[in-house]
Write a structure and sequence with these properties.
CATH topology of the largest domain: Aldehyde Dehydrogenase, Chain A, domain 1
Strand order of the largest sheet: 10-9-11-8-7-12-13
Largest sheet: 7 strands, parallel
Number of domains: 2
Radius of gyration: 23 Å
Shape: globular
Structural class: alpha/beta
Helix content: 40-55%
């Protein structure tokens, strides 16, 4: 979408302002950052009617674009969700400031004292799609970690993101911090994304938060380092030693609580020994709840199950659909997850400690769970206050990316006239 803006000049200005703000934030007092987030939370709540009115415009836009029900749910804001945004801002505000934390300290025989301390990354670019709450989460976490942030929300959340961003700026202003610490790209023009991905002079890392198309584009095109997960292909494995009551509760929650989030279960793997009993009951419960179950041949004997196709294995539905397969044993489940998973979140349901240990040891997903809903794959639920995303790469940050993961480190070395022989 073109709006006549000189995108290159606009992004250059945003980058310059972000770099200048980052230099100040690197040593901003913890109290000021806390105050900014608390003021922002107050502003969001005080202006909640404005936020909901802005969101109504976005919901209309999303409906015209033909967004799926799951995506419309991700886009929608009501008073309880706005309360959640405020709670998230206050939770991040209340956390310990990671900047300056000493993560390790030691003395050398030469007389040197060496400390490794957390330091801000600098400027972070966050590109996200329909979830307007990411505006608050990303702004809060970046600020807490002493980083300036450039936010680029999706076209669907344009008005909601603008209203929430205004509240964040109000918080910065009240706390005496640079207002350019949290900037939002004020255009739907996709050329702005292309510029952001090339801004190596100003941006230190890019965090994409959205679907496979967005994340794949960012990973292909970015010249700036990227924290990302491509897909949340989340598996739940029901072991032979699973507790029926726990399993029924967890599987239903993992799939149906919110289908449009990256922690939603997308594939159910069932041990052959319990396929006719517990497995059948689980499938029937899912069908009754309105979930389309795409099963392999053994499960197709259950009325209502749709035959699975090859492309159903390794598919992120983000909808009321789940793939289901019978596996011979835990190693069969592990092999399936290794082949089709995305290193995001995978869960085992079992009362067998040895089976759980094997699952945890032999898989390398960013998050592995036992007897818990995969919908807990969220920074807020991990005690991080909020998250900027789930990273599935192997470098720097992995799993939920909170404030601490948005820092790097530096070494502080002290001597006393110490020289090297």
């Amino acid at each position: 979408m073109k709006d006549g803006t000189d995108i290159q000049a606009m992004m250059e200005e945003i980058g310059q302002k972000a770099r200048a703000a980052a230099a100040e934030l690197a040593f901003a007092p913890s109290e000021a950052k806390r105050a900014a987030l608390e003021h922002a939370a107050d502003a969001v709540w005080a202006r909640r009617d404005e936020v909901i009115a802005a969101n109504a415009k976005d919901m209309e836009f999303g409906a015209e674009k033909g967004l799926s029900p799951a995506m419309m749910d991700r886009l929608m804001l009501d008073e309880p969700r706005i309360q959640g945004i405020c709670d998230g801002l206050r939770a991040v505000a209340a956390q310990d400031d990671p900047v300056g934390q000493v993560t390790e300290e030691w003395d050398r025989p030469t007389g040197l004292n060496i400390r490794r301390v957390r330091t801000p990354l600098g400027v972070i670019g966050v590109i996200y799609e329909s979830r307007p709450n990411v505006t608050a989460d990303a702004g809060a976490l970046c600020l807490k970690a002493g980083n300036a942030v450039i936010l680029r929300g999706g076209s669907e959340s344009f008005h909601s993101a603008s209203a929430i961003h205004a509240c964040l700026v109000e918080g910065l202003r009240a706390a005496g911090l640079p207002e350019d610490a949290i900037q939002r790209i004020p255009t739907r023009d996709r050329a702005a994304v292309a510029e952001l991905l090339r801004m190596t002079e100003y941006v230190d890392v890019i965090v994409p938060r959205g679907g496979k198309g967005l994340v794949g584009l960012v990973q292909r095109e970015a010249r700036v380092p990227v924290f990302a997960h491509l897909e949340g292909i989340v598996h739940v494995y029901v072991d032979a030693a699973a507790d029926a009551e726990k399993t029924a509760r967890v599987v239903m929650n993992a799939k149906t609580r919110r289908t449009g989030i990256c922690g939603a279960a997308e594939c159910l793997l069932i041990h052959r020994d319990v396929a006719e009993t517990l497995g059948r009951a689980l499938i029937e419960d899912l069908l009754k709840a309105g979930v389309e179950v795409r099963g392999d041949e053994p499960l197709q004997a259950i009325p209502g199950v749709t035959p699975a196709r090859d492309e159903d294995w390794g598919c992120e539905y983000l909808d009321m659909i789940i793939a289901a397969r019978v596996v011979d044993d835990i190693d069969g489940a592990i092999a399936h997850i290794r082949q089709y998973g995305s290193d995001h979140t995978d869960c085992i349901l079992t009362e067998d400690d040895a089976a759980a240990d094997r699952f945890f040891q032999r898989l390398d997903s960013a998050i592995l769970m036992r007897n818990a809903s995969t919908q807990f794959a969220d920074g807020g639920e991990f005690g991080m206050g909020a998250e900027i995303g789930i990273a599935t790469g192997k470098m720097h940050a992995r799993g939920p990316v909170g404030a601490a993961q948005l820092t790097s480190f530096k070494y502080l070395v002290r001597g006393d006239g110490t020289v090297r022989s």
